[in-house]
Amino acid sequence: MPTSAYLLLGAALFCMGVFGVLTRRNAIGVLIGVELMTNAVNLNLIALSRANGHLTGQAFALFSLALTVAEVIVGLAIVLLLYRSHRSVLTDSAVEMKG
Amino acid sequence: MAETIAFGIIAACMLGSGLLAVTSKKLVHSVLWLAATLVSTAALYVALAAPFLAAMQIVLYTGGVVTLMLFGVMLTDQAHDVGAANLSGKRLPAVLLGLLLFGLLAAAIQRTSLPPIVEAPPASTVELGKVLLLDHVVAFEALSVLLLATMIGAIVLARRNDVQD
Amino acid sequence: MNIASPITLAAVAVMAPLATFLIIGLIAPLRRSGKPAAWVGILGATTSTVAAALLVVDGRSDILIADWLGAGGKFFASIGFQVDGISASMLLVVSLVAWCVQVFSLGYMSDETPAGLGRYYTWHSLFLFSMNGLVMSPNALQLFLCWELVGLASYLLIGFYFRKPSAGRAAVKAFWITKLADIGLGAGLVALYVLTAKASPDGLGSFDWSPQVAQAIGTGGATVVAGLFFVAVMGKSAQFPLHIWLPDAMEGPTPVSALLHAATMVAAGVYLVVRAYPLFQAAPDVLLFMTYLGAWTAIFAAVIATVQTDIKKVLAYSTCSQLGYMVSGLGAGSLFGGYFHLFTHAGFKALLFLGAGALIHAVHSNELTDMGGLWRKMKLSGTAFILGALALAGVPGLAGFFSKDTILEALHASGQTVPWLMLLLAAGLTAFYMTRVVALALFGKPGHHTEHAHEAPASMLIPVLLLAVTAVGAGYMGGPLAKMVGAEYAFHWSMTGIIATSLGLLGIAAGWAIYGARIVTAEQLAVFAPIGNFIRASAVDRSAAWVYRNAMLGLGSGIAWFDRYVVDGVMNLTAWLAMSGGQQLRTFQSGRAGDYVYAVLVGVVLLVAAGLWNA
Question: CA-nearest residue of chain C to B94?
Fold first, then answer.
């Protein structure tokens, strides 16, 4: 398959993630959207790594993978904290930063 | 030909489950559809000659992240009443924005001249390890520090305040 | 003698006090422990003194210059060490006096709390570092930096008893008046840099004071630079009318006065003239002004010294007077004369201050009337004090005689009769007021505390006796010192010397007749009291206060008006704009994460679109 097919697939997945992030009010739902987006990015990285014929892209994807895991862990910890302080995980409920 | 069919099936699985992951009314279903998306992506990794990453994808994401998210959903007790509150009303602008972005990205991909794929045997884990530990060793070590910080941060954040030591 | 290179020795002499300053200053438990901190400080001073002595014995000249403040391959300035006869001998004087003072303080400050003692030695180390750095400066810029550090350290030392309001005020006064004068040094540096930059082919200025620089900037340039430098000298070396901080600075501990007001801080001004002498030589107008101002200060301060009742005030005015001698001698074209007097004066004036400190320590009072008859109780320190007084009075054979004679000779040779006569008169007055102090404090009617007085402890006696040796011997160092400075010196009797000596002896006789033997009582001299009152220090203080009240406050209120209505107005307008703008902008901040994500994604779409558009 041509690389562009993978890239298009990644773009579609990324836009789905965007849609999820924009529409979900539940914080965990937002996290799911973010996961889709980073997954799309990883797909692009690996596809381009193969297109270019060397492994740096894969190494980068691996780093990205680890970073995403870290992000999810901290994100979920924050969701737990939000739930404890607001009895809710809806992002609308945390509006303390309103100007 | 068989490759194209396989790619089409996997891509369809991925996009379908991805769409369901962002539209399901129940959060638990969303998480499970996410898992399905991630597994489909792992299959694509295999097709892209990156078996190690495919394995990592399954171990880390489906084994770790998805499980963690399920725990999160259960701990915050949202499993039962996610229905109405899960999706906000502003779907149309989000759809438009998503489609617009996809259009732009697709146009960009079409206009870029990509190199043809080099047909090579799947990269061995040994080679990947060399790239990681020789060329990118600083980043690798920095990442280990980051993971440690994440661990401590998660403990600090999630710890109950009323439990003293 | 070839132990180490001159530069190494100089670096050791400068850096040892810095090291002790950092050690005492940063290690709080050590500082608060008092005595151990004092010993660390003394160790630093000892190292400096030994290094300086080796440097003098070594006798080689060397210079180390490191580029500093570089930009684009060109360097704006340089720092380093300049080792030559002048700096090596001055380094020895400074370090030795500092060592004596620090050892003396062990006994003198024994009533101090450990924390206070630690603080005291911290500032002493800082002071010694700054002063040694100043002495070793290869150019005017480094000298200026160290000069300011010296000012800071002296402020801290004068204000050591900061709980006493008068000490705090005295420290502030000393600081501000010297800072006011330092504007001259700063402006002089700028002028020097600009003028040398104009004269040099590559357009790069310098802060050097070499004869080449003086030649390059010409007489006009040298007059500007030397004149501005001399303003700073007037402040630091307490020349009329900027001398008013010096008597007040006696609020500091007596050893501090010995350090600051005998050998080091006040001598820094004279030292600046000595170092930048090529520039001064190219400016005859400035030299002439120095001759007259120095002579005037010498006689003016000597008159005031005759009526002071506080032993330290007498010594303070005496210092002003002697600095006047140095400035006048330098003005008359005798580099060696001024420097020689600086050299001898450092020894015997430090001796006088430390001796006075021993007396004050014995009776817990500065007043001459509270002392009286102390000689019977304190034979050793009393003798040393008398030696110092005689050296200052210019008795033949003692240190002050030789150096004062050199200055007077120089004035005579330059044909400036008026300053010469003024200085001769001042020599007589000097002998008079020192005899008065000796007669009142050591002999005279016993005061209240005289009965309980004891000889000073060893830590105070050793430095005093050591300095007594210099008071006797420093005068005979004229020949070697002249060779180090690059001048010729051999003592011979001349008309001037005979007149000065006679006037000195006359002064001693008159002083003894009035205050010692009481042949003529002070009451009979009361007719002269109005004169004394007229030229008392307070007159100068009052005129300074008048200038302050009228000129300074007027200017101040003008600036205050500008500040309140123009500067504040602009600031308030800015603040109002920021606030109302913020009020408008805050409506964008909904506080909901979703809205921000929307904004970010719209931005991403726009960026991608822009990228495609340009591609």
Answer: C598
